[in-house]
Amino acid sequence: MIKVRRGKSEDVPAMVELGEVFWEETPYREMDYSGEAAAQAALFLLENGIVQVAQDDEDLVGFILLAVGPIPFTTAGLAASELAFYVAPEKRGDGVGQRLLKQAENVARQQGVRRINMVHLGGEMGDAPTQAYEAQGYREGEVLYTKEL
User: Fold this and answer.
1) Looking at domain 2-135, what is its CATH homologous superfamily?
2) What pLDDT, on a 0 to 100 scale, did the predictor assign at position 138?
3) Does the first or last residue of the chain, that is N or C, have fewer Cβ atoms within 10 Å of its Cβ?
């Protein structure tokens, strides 16, 4: 049975390992993956953001990492922005992603977050992330443009 829970520092090695699999499914895969950088980011977000993991027995099968900060130009509260959201391919379609997202929303709400921004990198996953986000009540709010320097 898959358990969704807050991430812990002990999860970082497994997050780094799963992160490398995630990396290969992103447009960023042309860049070298750094386990050290991934570990530093995970540790930072454990202290300063929101980290939720999905665990199947002893194996980590998914995670969501959200950065949290003030909404610029207002005192209306905090915003959270997704930095990484991944579910292992063999666990997709089982509701693991929905559970991770719902749990992250609950934690965000408890921390005073008013808005969550999710990202869709496109590519191999097609429209599946867009459909999943919309099914959970998300709507397109901004479009991200990326330029390689």
Assistant:
1) Gcn5-related N-acetyltransferase (GNAT) (3.40.630.30)
2) 85
3) C
